[in-house]
Amino acid sequence: MIESTTEIATGADRMDAFVTHPEGDGPFPAVVLFMDIWGLREELFDIARKIAVVGYHCTVPNFYYRQGKVRLAVFGEDGRMKSFAALPAQEQQRIVAQRRSLTDEMVVEDVNSVLAFFKTQPVKGGAKGSIGYCMGGRHALCVAAAYPDDFRATASLHGTTLVSDTPGSPHRLADAYRGEIYCGFGERDEHASPATIAALSAALEGRPNVRYSGRVHPRAEHGYALPDRDVHDKQAANRDWEAIFGMYERILKV
Fold first, then answer.
1. pLDDT in tens, 10-67
2. Domain count, the chain
3. CATH number of the domain that 101 lies in?
């Protein structure tokens, strides 16, 4: 395995990122990991390594870079990350303010720079994959719609605000998607109500341009898919990985 930290030039500044891929000359199919509200940290880097070790080039960009190298993770005495609901109100407000500084449009713009960065890397041409957590789940879907010729294997895990009244809501972008989309949800996730899941499914299922599949995990909570989180659900996360790696295999390794 080869890994490094780097900076990607964007129209706004320089965006720091973690990059990992197998040893050898490649080229390797590319996957972008879209961070959650907490920003970059070792937990996400370990997920990138999990992806790279089976043959992919994985990049984890810091989309908060306009405010610097922001790191928001808060850990308990057991060494696991605390969930948002477990934090004091003042800490919650700080994290929410940081999230509000980042728009979907900013992420979509920055990904154009990531695609340019790939041209300097041992990255295979053609379809690319993605995986996003929390707000990153929404960002992955927005990016898939903005760059349909590139992002053909998209995964959103406990994504937030996937259905809204805004023109850029992921469920309103169904005509733009290509390839495959997989979404994993927790049954007890307050950010993904049954109505939201149903609306997304109704918008995406049965379309000729994209194959959509979604799964609701019994008793799982928001954040269940992240391995260092206090609410991690290993069984649910493993079921997601089975679906995601199957999708990557079909789309990216052809």
1. 999 999 999 999 998 889 999 999 999 888 999 999 999 999 999 999 999 999 999 8
2. 1
3. 3.40.50.1820
